[in-house]
Write a structure and sequence with these properties.
GO terms for molecular function: 3'-tyrosyl-DNA phosphodiesterase activity; double-stranded DNA binding; exonuclease activity; single-stranded DNA binding. This protein is of the alpha+beta class. Helix content is 22%, strand content 22%.
């Protein structure tokens, strides 16, 4: 080989090393190894990976359901004796969960390190539905995760779940930052002394490495139009962020929206809630605005009866997937043209029913313009009711989510079974294009009996 040929080879090698690699901002949560193939768990995240770090010194866990023993067992053995652990959950008027967790706390070895933070629920139909963590480390760094799994082993191992994980951030040198402002305001909205201290600590954190992501939370309350908090939470915050992200999108053709969730609430007629409020917010248009709603194809991915029947535990996998009582069939009839199967063969999650919640905007080339990962299902309680007459927004539940957008006007390339690419990318939990319900498909509902056996030969009777 000549020197020139050697030189050319060296140039090629240098160029190869200089290729920039992008990592998906959305990650899938690692499924139990006996359930999926090894290649389907590549680049996934487990709870043990997050809380099992040796230098973890303080942790805040926010969730709807909790198992303290499960959470503490995954903490690194060297960190466990001294870690300060705070568990934030909703306290109903009955107080059942608070009592149960206190009894469990007493049985744990390092129970003096555990602080329960019950949050009184303001509304009968509201919940504390947020799922997030704040992790502090011994080297003065902090990390935030926002995800969809409850703090129980079943959710983290046996359902399709998603997570956004921040980089480790320095506790020093923090300036102004949009995500920081919104997240700290969310923490302060709890109006809890313990969480106020957390917010104070976060005020000094340097969030500069958190880029192309915005926080979208829901905080229970009744917010008057014109007030500082009117557009800070829920559907109006979603509209505010999406409208700004949409301005960067070069593809001006009619958008395609994929709405995917694990539960659907009592929405009423689509003309009264979904279309004028949530759909418009997802299109970057103000809810109840006077401008014509943009044309858009909307697909709603929600498991069918057959999807659940053939899932990991058959009917046993459908307990946390809810469709409202619809005795007249009016809601199902209106949603029918938009309903799509849970199809996740490419994603390696077909057998795992979705507990993940995502709201995705596709371009005409079926690339991803932006994507929301959130705890918020398709419900009025989660996103809030924007009342045109009363000029207010009423939110009943606590929710936490993020909207992920590309670093430039170039959309995300959809990825499966991995998190890295040579172009901006996002890992999808479901296959695209969505697969519409067939004529004989039924919507799964945990409230309805099913006499046809599942894959294990079992029938289903609601509890």
């Amino acid at each position: 080989m000549s020197r020139r040929e050697e030189s050319d080879d060296e140039v090629v090698e240098v160029k190869r090393r200089r290729v920039e690699m992008y990592r998906s901002p959305l990650k899938l949560i690692r499924a139990e190894e006996s359930v999926v193939k090894e290649q389907e768990n590549v680049d996934t995240v487990s709870l043990a990976h997050l809380v099992g770090q040796r230098d973890l010194v303080e942790i805040y866990q926010f969730s709807f359901e909790m198992d303290l023993a499960y959470a503490m067992d995954l903490v690194h053995p060297e960190a466990r004796p001294n870690i300060k652990a705070y568990f934030v959950f909703g306290k109903s008027r009955k107080g059942d969960m608070a009592e149960r967790l206190e009894e469990q706390r007493k049985t744990l070895k390092y129970n003096k390190n555990i602080t329960l933070v019950p949050i009184p629920l303001r509304y009968d139909y509201g919940t504390h539905h947020s799922k997030l963590m704040v992790l502090f480390f011994s080297n003065n760094e902090v990390q935030i995760t926002i995800h969809t799994a409850n703090l129980i082993s079943y959710d983290w191992e046996n359902m399709t779940q998603g997570i956004w994980v921040s980089p480790r951030m320095s506790l020093k040198g923090g300036g102004e930052h949009e995500f920081k402002t919104d997240f700290v305001d969310y923490i302060r909205a709890y109006k809890n002394p313990c969480l106020n201290k957390l917010a104070d600590s976060l005020e000094s954190v340097n969030f500069d490495d958190v880029q192309n992501v915005s926080f979208i939370g829901s905080v229970p309350g009744n917010y008057e139009k014109g007030s500082a908090e009117y557009k800070k939470w829920g559907a109006l915050k979603l509209y505010d962020v999406v409208s700004r992200v949409e301005k960067r999108i070069e593809d001006k053709s009619d958008p395609e929206l994929i709405v995917q969730m694990s539960s659907i609430g009592s929405l009423g007629p689509l003309s009264s809630y979904f279309n004028p409020i949530l759909k418009r917010a997802l299109l970057g248009q103000e809810p109840h605005g006077t401008d014509p709603t943009r044309n858009a194809k909307v697909s709603i991915i929600f498991p069918s009866l057959m999807n659940i029947r053939e899932s990991l535990f058959g009917y046993g996998s459908g307990g946390s997937i809810h469709f409202p009582k619809d005795e007249k069939g009016s809601l199902q009839k209106e949603l029918r043209p938009m309903l799509c199967q849970w199809k996740a063969k490419e994603a390696g999650r077909q057998i795992l029913p979705p507990h993940i919640k995502t709201y995705t905007r596709l371009t005409k080339e079926r690339k991803v313009a932006w994507m929301v990962l959130t705890s918020a299902n398709l419900s009025k309680q989660a996103w809030g009711i924007v009342n045109k007459t009363k000029k207010n927004q009423w939110i009943q539940s606590w929710e936490a989510g993020v909207i992920l957008s590309p670093p430039s006007s170039e959309p995300f390339t959809p990825l499966y079974k991995r998190d890295t690419s040579t172009s901006p990318c996002v890992r999808l939990p479901f296959d695209i294009p969505p697969s519409p319900y067939e004529d004989n498909d039924e919507v799964w509902s945990a409230k309805v009996s099913h006499s046809e056996p599942d894959r294990f030969g079992n029938i289903y009777v609601p509890r």
